[in-house]
Write a structure and sequence with these properties.
Layout lengths: L2 E4 L3 E7 L2 E8 L1 H9 L6 E8 L4 H9 L2 E9 L5 E7 L6 E7 L19 E4 L4 H9 L6 E5 L2 H6 L1 H8 L4 E5 H8 L4 H9 L5 E5 L5 E5 L2 E5 L13 H14 L6 H18 L13 H14 L5
Helix pairs in contact: 1-8, 3-5, 6-7, 8-9, 9-10
Organism: Prosthecochloris ethylica
Pfam families: PfkB
Keywords: Kinase, Transferase
């Protein structure tokens, strides 16, 4: 099934209590696409980079089966850059530097051969750009969307217009409370689902994730890891694994949605084990299935 991913590509300088990594390949669409690539061989990526985005980065994406023809290259510009430092608990971080560079003028133009994509995943870019992408797509089967506090606070009306066209919405707990105006996540979910998306996922970091549908609520645990080096991109990686599983299903139903949450959680657990996209670039399906089984075992009660 064809999958269109639209979002940012970036270089990150990351500091955690356990190390540092500079000029690390990142960006929402990078994490989403790499994560999804283990489930599908038809991924089309749309974004913008500068001339500093080298052939090795394109090669990394392509060798994972990701079509990069939709990536715009601005010859006289620089790629989006972000620098951040994580606190000891790894749940909070300080942004040290943000350089939008060519991403500041990102105007997504979807190539003609991408417009028939069955599945669309919108990274946490400007909701006006998300709407522009959807205007160029021909009747996708499924639209998944992410966002962030910056857009909830800065462009709430545009975001709400986007949500009217979204099937599945993914955000974290603080974003859910901000968007809904309610501190209770169950109430927040009801409020947000009334904005359009009938399926909602609220990520809770080290406390797992909640899935809200018409069928009820499903709670997925987080994977207990001894070593967490870098949580950057874990949410986007979750979205990629979640979408990847759904894209290979013959039918999307409540059971498959719940499995997708566990696959998303499994992929996110791999992401945090190394800096940036390093771990994502070297997985195999057996590892992923083993980790998925481990998630099943976490909450299983013996007969």
């Amino acid at each position: 099934m064809s999958i269109l991913v639209v979002g940012s590509l970036a270089f990150d300088n990351i500091e955690t209590p356990f190390g540092r990594s500079d000029d690390t390949l990142g960006g929402s669409s990078t994490y989403i696409a790499l994560s999804t690539s283990y489930f599908s061989d038809d991924i089309r990526l749309v974004g913008v980079v500068g001339s500093d985005f080298g052939d090795e980065h394109f090669q990394l994406l392509r060798q994972n089966g990701i079509d990069t023809k939709g990536i715009q290259v601005v010859d006289d510009g620089k790629t989006f850059r972000w620098a951040g430092r994580y606190h000891y608990d790894m749940n909070t971080r300080d942004t040290l530097d943000t350089q939008l560079n060519v991403f500041a003028d990102f105007d997504p133009h979807i190539p003609a051969e991408y417009r028939e994509a069955r599945y669309v995943c919108l990274g946490n870019i400007d909701p006006e750009l998300q709407l522009k992408v959807l205007d160029q797509i021909s009747k996708p089967d499924l639209v998944i969307c992410d966002t962030m506090n910056f857009w909830i606070e800065g462009k709430p009306e545009a975001l709400k217009k986007t949500l009217e066209q979204v099937d599945i919405f993914i955000l974290n707990d603080s974003e859910a409370r901000l968007l809904s105006g309610d501190p209770n996540l169950v109430k927040s979910a009801r409020i947000i689902r009334n904005m359009g998306p009938k399926t909602l996922i609220i990520k809770k970091g080290e406390h797992g994730a909640l899935l809200f549908t018409d069928e009820g609520i499903f709670a997925a645990p987080a994977y207990p890891l001894e070593s967490i080096y870098d949580p950057t991109g874990a949410g986007d990686t979750f979205a990629g694994g979640f979408l990847g599983h759904l894209a290979r299903c013959e039918e999307i139903n409540e059971s498959e949605l719940r499995k997708a949450v566990l696959y998303g959680s499994a992929m996110a657990s791999f992401c945090v084990e190394k800096f940036g996209t390093e771990k994502l670039a070297g997985l195999d399906l057996l590892e992923i299935e083993d980790r998925y089984q481990s998630f099943l075992d976490l909450s299983r009660i013996a007969d």
